[in-house]
Design a protein that fits this description.
The protein is mainly α. The chain is built from 14 helices and no strands.
Length: 239
């Protein structure tokens, strides 16, 4: 038992070091001013367009692996969805992002179930113990609802089901189905931004952005989805 605890501690420590190293390396390469610069975004749009024409399969594979690693490193899905739409468009982007997020979330769930279960129980069991009866009643159905309505930070929502010992296959399928609607809208927004950048040499005004169909349609739909999710959360998480 003592040896098992030591192994878990070492692997858990390695995981934290790997995450920290990844984040430090990423932000040492790009400053926030660069990442938000219109010229920087435009240049990278042209770069990815060329790369996509030359080797689409390789780009899809790299982005998929990057998404899995990002989620496993306790990342959140929104920026990945926007970037995926920006690079691949809304249809292919949705497939790659949803698959990457689902696989990464499942890996994180498996990791949490093995290494962090006692810690997660200690922190969250009292607050979410009402979910146990729901998952026992119909595990897959309520997991899909759980993933769809959100309301919990993505990284935490990936490991919270460890408390209830849900099946890995059900977790993966529920994540795949549950996150698709919101991811599709975010990917569509990223795709719309890419189209606007292709059409404008200079940065468009806020008014032009807001009244562009590629922007306001996903935003309005996403707002409605959030409203629906808020109603769902009140029903789902009530005791």
């Amino acid at each position: 038992m003592e040896k098992s605890k030591k192994i878990k501690f070492i692997l858990g420590l390695f995981y934290l070091i790997a995450i920290s190293s990844f984040l430090i390396l990423f932000f040492s390469k790009f400053s926030m001013s660069e990442l938000t610069s219109y010229k920087f975004i435009q240049q990278n749009s042209e770069y990815f367009l060329t790369l996509k024409k030359n080797d689409l399969f390789f780009l899809c594979f790299v982005f998929l692996i990057g998404t899995i690693l990002w989620v496993f490193a306790a990342g959140f899905g929104s920026p990945v969805a926007l970037i995926g739409g920006f690079i691949f468009g809304k249809w292919l982007g949705t497939i790659i992002v949803v698959l990457g997020l689902s696989v990464g979330a499942t890996f994180l769930y498996i990791f949490g179930n093995y290494f962090l279960k006692d810690f997660i129980k200690e922190k969250f069991l009292t607050k979410f113990e009402n979910l146990e009866s729901k998952f026992k009643k119909s595990e897959l159905f309520y997991l899909v609802v759980y993933r769809f309505i959100g309301g919990i930070p993505f990284a935490i929502s990936n490991v919270l089901p460890c408390i209830f010992n849900v099946k890995k296959s059900n977790f993966f399928l529920a994540t795949l189905l549950g996150i698709t609607p919101q991811i599709f809208l975010l990917v569509s927004l990223g795709s719309g931004i890419e189209k606007i950048i292709q059409q404008n040499i200079e940065a468009p005004s806020t008014k032009d952005l807001l009244f562009s169909p590629e922007i306001y349609i996903p935003v309005v739909c996403f707002t409605l989805l959030v409203a629906l999710s808020l109603i769902g959360r009140k029903l789902f998480y009530r005791k």
